[in-house]
Specification:
single chain
Length: about 190
């Protein structure tokens, strides 16, 4: 099915990234610097994969029922509307957490180079998991509101782009002023 191929593709892409960035000299060849570069690259790759896949699974969860004319069948069962919604949310979120968990061994491969700790890996894993769950919930909310899957996907990805890019806007707009007023630097980077 689609979910198995998605999981295999995500794990394959991150594995290819690790193999491409692994130091040529082997273990401990470049020490801490290589480990941090690899960790940052794999963490960013995992975050991007989670952010790109999460809306695809959740933004169409209710709209597909509406398009296939099976939404009315769902509402006429003994399940309450909140139970239907909760079941769809939990199933999508558990798959996203499975996807994030499947990338954990790839993230942990950076421990072999030294210079990274389990605490750093746990924090990165938590950030990726929270990003996947929150964008998944955004996708589900849009799916409940929208009538068509394409519309739900476009709105969800647009909202996710705004949500991810908006915190960077003050730093980009005030980049030239930071050198003039040191206090502005602290303000822009805390956003």
């Amino acid at each position: 099915p689609r979910s198995a191929w998605t999981l295999a593709t995500a794990v394959g892409l991150l594995t290819a990234l690790v193999l491409a960035l692994w130091p040529a000299g082997g273990l401990y060849s470049l020490g801490e610097q290589a480990s941090h570069t690899l960790l940052n690259s794999v963490a960013l790759g995992g975050l991007l994969i989670a952010l790109l896949i999460a809306p695809a699974f959740t933004a169409t969860s209710l709209t597909m029922e509406k398009e296939n004319a099976s939404y009315d069948l769902l509402t006429h069962t003994l399940l309450r509307p909140w139970q239907i919604a909760w079941g769809k949310i939990v199933s999508a979120q558990l798959y996203l957490l499975l996807l994030v968990t499947a990338t954990l061994p790839i993230l942990s491969s950076t421990l072999f180079l030294g210079g990274t700790s389990m605490g750093q890996l746990a924090l990165i894993f938590a950030v990726i998991a929270v990003a996947a769950v929150s964008t998944g919930l955004l996708g589900f909310a849009v799916s409940a509101w929208s009538r068509e899957s394409f519309t739900a996907l476009v709105i969800t990805y647009s909202g996710m782009l705004i949500w991810c890019a908006l915190p960077l806007l003050p730093a980009l707009l005030l980049r030239g002023l930071i050198l003039l007023v040191p206090m502005l630097g602290a303000v822009t980077y805390t956003s």
